[in-house]
Amino acid sequence: MSGGRSILIVEDEQTLRLSMVRGLSKLEGVEVADAATVREAKRVLGERRPELVISDLDLPDGSGIEVATELDRLGLRVPIVYVSAYIGRYKHRLPNRADVEVYEKPLPLDRLRSLVESKLGFGGDANPISPFAVADYVQLAGMGRHSVVIEVQSPAGRGRLIIKAGEVWSAEDRLGKGLDAFRRIAFLGAAQVTCRTLGKEVIPPRDIDGSVESVLLDVARRLDEAERDQGAAVVDDGWGDVFVESQGARHVTTRPPRRWSSLPPPAPTTLPSMNAVSRSFEETFDRGVDALLAKDYRTAYEVFLEAERLDPRDRRVIANLQRLRDMGFS
Q1: CATH of 5-105, one of 3.50.50.60, 3.40.190.10, 3.40.50.2300, 3.20.20.370
Q2: Phi, psi dihedrals of residue 111, rounded to the nearest 5°
Q3: What is the pLDDT of residue 189?
Q4: DSSP assignment of 63-109
Q5: What pLDDT does residue 247 have?
Q6: pLDDT tens digits for 287-321?
Q7: Which of 23, 79, 133, 216 could lock 99 by a disulfide, CB 3.0 to 4.6 Å apart?
Q8: The overall pTM is greater than 0.85
Q9: Burial, 305: exposed, middle or buried (Cβ in 10 Å; 0-12, 13-18, 19+)?
């Protein structure tokens, strides 16, 4: 660790650890050390002084909390990021300080890279990671029957999706076009997303048929089938990373982002479709979707509050308000 910004990864699952090391080592100016146990982590910390530690919580000879204790003993006040499937088991023991963050597995590797860049001060705020996943923007465009161009950039690559009148029109990245490109782009866990209205520009020929909902569900179904067929799914996303999910342990994976997969379907209404209240609600909901697509989150929150007053049971409104509150808009 003599030249670059140094980080330490503590993870006992070998396949995941090597994938993390390989992916984070691609960041310019970053050098990565790794350990599989608390004992190994202590040895590394005795030899090297990392600027960031990424650790599992449940380790063969102890817990990741002991790694934080060792950092304190050595007088190293460095950020520590816990990534674990056992957060509930350790939540009452986690260090209560500002430089500790906790994330639940699976955490996509591109999201992990973004965290590392943020913690080490790379890139500034010029291109912030979008708080909504790519599939969120796709689904919002479909629900509102919008025509938009969604341009995506992550540390691993770039891509573009076109949604026309709520229908998936085309997808393209450096590896190709069509449904495969849609799968590579839409299920990125974290990325810089630009969503703009589709104007009178020349657009490419249509290479994907179907509504947003049907295409998203079809791609998700194919991923699930591939995982079941392989037992331990190893899927190369084509953007420079291998995502792994082994049976019994969930790791970095190409599954749809948790926020999209948890978004409930539109709730049926018991009011007549031409009822004035119903029309007012749908118009208000559409304004909220427009604000989300424009990344005007403060306005989106206020509009969805208005929609909630019109129909407090609509699960789409409830889900979007919760996500906006999680982002700090309340």
Answers
A1: 3.40.50.2300
A2: -70, -40
A3: 58
A4: EHHHHHHHHHHTT----EEEEES-HHHHGGGS--STTEEEEESP--H
A5: 36
A6: 888 777 777 888 888 998 998 888 888 888 888 88
A7: 79
A8: no
A9: middle
